[in-house]
């Protein structure tokens, strides 16, 4: 299993198994009220666990990307599975927010990041002919994961209590990730799918014939285009995702149950976006897809900041946000692989993904600090700027070539 695999789609199967478990990261809101009810913690301190998890997740992607490029994805994925399971299970012992930050936030977050980057980096090497589609399939599983585990989480909380639920979930997450990791095998050097001829690099697009190191990548302006798209796009989306229920209650006047439906629709469209945008970008191009995503986000943010929303339009706006969030997660790693080569894609995308963590730390706090309407206006302007950047984007030249 370490040196060969019978069918490259088995790599996709293993990746899907892993991503379904990792997608549970976006179910955190299900734990907030039970934890507050049990321990009497401050709501803000409890919700901050989600930010710690995402920040640790982003940090781990950088480190894991570098390591998996050297020792292979399977070992890194196994380590990620062990840390994810351990961190979530140890959260069952937490009696203070700080203990929760260390266990579920830091340990599990590091594990999730390590496991997350390995399927992406492996599959783009097996599927040079279908990078966008396969990336979309894998990341769609991440979006679906939250929906798959939601009823199980609620059942565990209701039957055993929130602390014991962490224990059981940690065991389940860890086992599934370890199973999926067994399928992560890199293709042999020079691998090409049968009947596929690599397209020649062009000024307008194509696959880079040169494999950039991260040090070389960060010296290009294209790297900072990716940073802008990641940071602004993720900040706008997480600004909604992290407090979707609160937005529905405060801005639309919905009940908790009605506003909570936004979590479900965001998950659905997040998964759909990860799948659909990958296939769309194969047809219309990566940067054009980023342009469309940012224009959709601009419209959604502007609408939410200025319009009097109804229940239906609130859900529609959050669906757009989820759809675009999935699109960014699908298209950005593919652009990274095509612009900077596949040899160091884990490390290079990790450097870009760091700014997802920065967005996760800043965006939810900004929306609370300056108010939802003002925060959405800021996000709308940022998305418009990110859209404008696409008109400047083209693949970087290799270091030995003129810029």
UniProtKB/TrEMBL annotation:
GO terms, molecular function: transmembrane transporter activity
Positions of the Major facilitator superfamily (MFS) profile domain: 7-398
Membrane topology summary: Multi-pass membrane protein
TM region positions: 9-31, 43-64, 76-95, 101-121, 133-153, 165-186, 223-244, 256-277, 289-308, 314-337, 349-368, 374-393
Single GO cellular component term: plasma membrane
Location within or outside the cell: Cell membrane
Keywords, alphabetical: Membrane, Transmembrane, Transmembrane helix, Transport
Pfam families: MFS_1
InterPro entries from the UniProt entry: MFS, MFS_dom, MFS_trans_sf, Proton-linked_MCT
Superkingdom of source: Bacteria
Gene3D superfamilies linked to this entry: MFS general substrate transporter like domains
UniProt-listed PANTHER family: MAJOR FACILITATOR SUPERFAMILY (MFS) PROFILE DOMAIN-CONTAINING PROTEIN-RELATED (PTHR11360:SF317), MONOCARBOXYLATE TRANSPORTER (PTHR11360)
Protein name (Swiss-Prot/TrEMBL): MFS transporter, OFA family, oxalate/formate antiporter
Annotated organism of origin: Thermosyntropha lipolytica DSM 11003
Higher taxonomy: Bacteria, Bacillati, Bacillota, Clostridia, Eubacteriales
């Amino acid at each position: 299993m370490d040196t060969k695999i019978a069918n490259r789609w088995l790599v996709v199967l293993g990746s899907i198994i892993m991503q379904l478990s990792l997608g549970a990261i976006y179910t955190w809101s299900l734990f907030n009220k039970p934890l507050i009810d049990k321990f009497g913690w401050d709501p803000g301190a409890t919700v901050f666990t989600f930010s710690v998890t995402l920040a640790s997740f982003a940090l781990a992607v950088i480190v894991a990307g570098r390591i998996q490029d050297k020792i292979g994805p399977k070992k890194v994925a196994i380590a990620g599975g062990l840390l994810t399971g351990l961190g979530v299970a140890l959260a069952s012992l937490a009696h203070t927010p700080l203990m929760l930050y260390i266990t579920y936030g830091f340990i599990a977050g590091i594990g999730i990041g390590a496991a997350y980057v390995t399927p992406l980096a492996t599959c783009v090497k097996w599927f040079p002919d279908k990078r966008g589609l396969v990336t979309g399939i894998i990341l769609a599983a991440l979006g679906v994961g939250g929906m798959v585990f939601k009823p199980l989480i609620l059942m565990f909380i209701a039957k055993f209590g929130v602390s014991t639920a962490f224990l059981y979930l940690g065991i389940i997450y860890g086992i599934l990730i370890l199973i999926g990791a067994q399928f992560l095998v890199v293709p042999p050097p020079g691998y090409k799918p049968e009947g596929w001829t690599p397209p020649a690099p062009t000024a307008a697009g194509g696959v880079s014939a040169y494999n950039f190191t991260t040090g070389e990548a960060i010296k290009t302006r294209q790297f900072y285009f990716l940073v802008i798209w990641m940071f602004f796009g993720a900040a706008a989306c997480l600004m909604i995702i992290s407090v979707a229920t609160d937005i529905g209650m405060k801005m639309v006047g919905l009940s908790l149950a009605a506003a909570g439906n936004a979590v479900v629709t965001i998950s659905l469209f997040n998964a759909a976006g990860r799948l659909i945008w990958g296939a769309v970008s194969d047809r219309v191009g990566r940067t054009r897809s980023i342009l469309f995503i940012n224009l959709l986000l601009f419209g959604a943010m502007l609408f939410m900041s200025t319009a009097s929303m109804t229940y239906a339009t609130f859900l529609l706006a959050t669906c757009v946000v989820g759809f675009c969030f999935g699109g960014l997660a699908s298209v950005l790693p593919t652009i990274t692989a095509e612009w900077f080569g596949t040899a160091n894609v884990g490390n290079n995308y990790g450097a870009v993904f760091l700014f997802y963590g920065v967005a996760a730390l800043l965006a939810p706090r900004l929306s609370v600090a300056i108010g939802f309407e003002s925060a959405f206006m800021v996000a709308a302007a940022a998305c418009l700027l990110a859209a404008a950047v696409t008109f400047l984007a083209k693949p970087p030249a290799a270091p030995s070539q003129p810029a």
